[in-house]
Amino acid sequence: MSRSILIVDDDARILASLSQALADSGEVRAAESAESALASLAEAPSDVVLADLKMPGMDGIELLKLLRERSPEIDVLIMTAYDDLPTVAEAMREGASDFLVKPLDLHHLRRVLARVFEDRSVRTKPLSQARDTTDRAERGGERMVGRDSAMVEIFKLIGQVASTRTTVVIRGESGTGKELVAREVHASSPYADEPFVAVNCTALPATLLESELFGHVKGAFTDAASDRKGRFALAGRGTIFLDEIGDTPPEFQAKLLRVLQEHEFYPVGAERPERAEARVIAATHRNLEEEIAARRFREDLYYRLRVVEILVPPLRDRMGDIPLLAEHLVRRAGEAVDRRGLVLAPESIESLLGYRWPGNVRELENCLTRAVVMATSEVIRPEHLQFGAPAASGVEAESLTTLADVERAHVYRILQATGGHKSRSAEILGISRPRLDRLIQKFELEGLEEDSE
Description:
Layout: E1 4-8, H1 12-21, E2 27-31, H2 34-43, E3 48-52, H3 60-70, E4 75-80, H4 86-93, E5 98-101, H5 106-122, H6 136-139, H7 149-161, E6 168-171, H8 178-187, E7 196-200, H9 206-214, H10 231-235, E8 239-243, H11 250-262, E9 264-265, E10 274-275, E11 279-284, H12 288-293, H13 299-305, E12 308-311, H14 322-336, E13 343-344, H15 346-353, H16 360-374, E14 379-380, H17 403-417, H18 422-429, H19 433-442
Parallel strand pairs: 1-2, 1-3, 3-4, 4-5, 6-11, 6-12, 7-8, 8-11, 13-14
Antiparallel strand pairs: 9-10
Helix pairs in contact: 4-7, 11-13, 14-16, 17-18, 18-19
């Protein structure tokens, strides 16, 4: 069976090297732009198009979309050297067969091509047509950063499941960014304009969890002075993200199972059900299999939730991403406190790479946020970095303090750094405005904050 490959890249050296490296994989042609690739395909079709993402004129994603419309039988592989992992999700969502990160591993590329050609030999249905979705870059917000192969695989999964309504379970240690993954799934879906409603199941007492998620009717309990919509109703046709689902009580698990099975729920005290249209994405740091064995988590709910599972690796398993993450987090923290242009000294990067990050990305963010606040110049040096808790053997007894004292001091320092701006302070601390208000009241910090949003 004949096999043909069209390589599209504006770098002549890459075209030459790939053409030579793939000569034994099939008939190879080359094009220096997406426009010339389309002209070449009009003259003679190809089985596979290997296209660069960033090119002058039409880019790889635009070429992919056109090929999905005009020639859906062609397999398209996208390659890029740019650190824009959300593009992986977009490429996969638009129908790319795979996504490759430069510098290319030729052995991996050959394996990918072998799989693609094998799939072509048994495929009976054409590739799905492209879907109209909002561009991720236009939606803004927090984004995931990294080049590690595990992160690339996560974005491939996001692209594959985003257009469906299937439930997803995201698993990973605390601080790995499970909510960011959920937000990427939502932002890549056709329902990106619908609400994304996040619920931390551990932040709500078991007695309030049902009412918070499903709502209640007037008179359902003592304080129910009026009807109140729950989070499922507020999510509409969007996404409801249930964080730490492994910590929910059995009674709630039974009610959530009904929502997933019947697509309806009863507000507390209601006699008639309401339709549940939101997509459910759940996350947990717990080993659900162990929770099932200990009879703390329902096995039937586990299988209803775990239609697709995304495993988020701990930061210690993708240390190569730390320089990229650090640069991104410093820039974001600097913008939040009006200190733009800060950079990390090379020895600071070395210090970051030498630490194991038990708190994962959240701990890295906290460390760098503090460094942005504490740096006295435009350069963040190792002395501005503080890793974890100091060892007890190296700390004087007088310096030991309670967790509440540490928390109060940190909130105080951030409020001072932002000039009392509540919204910026809450963003830096990674908490909601209402929670910041409660902490200000708890620690008697009134007067530091300002009223601006």
